[in-house]
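#structure-requests
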Amino acid sequence: TPLTLHTISRNPVFSSFEDEKEDWAPPHIQLAQRADLLLIAPATANAMANFAHGLAPNMLSSLYLACQAPVLICPAMNVHMWEHAATQQNAAVLQQRKDHHIFGPSESGILACGAEGAGKLMPVDRIVQKTLSLLP
């Protein structure tokens, strides 16, 4: 929950535009301006579609559109969602953008829904390694 993340990180947590009431400058803009890298893990099919089509219905996609830093997208979803032509097209669009990197999903494994196949989030240690390799 946002409260758990706030407590553990000792930093503000923004999960919706309703959380942006304390400062005159929107936090999603402030975060975007300070970012050295934007990591989205796990990246859902919905998030990737919003990014690919320039939609900003939520805090994450608004942050993405405002961010000028490199972007690392780590997809995780049901195998059929990952393999769907629309998701594959969205991933291809994102991969073609400057400083955008798609990392994953894992090629096989048991998914949260019980299905087996591609769609599993890459192991966290590999995401950390990839993140570090992309930082300036």
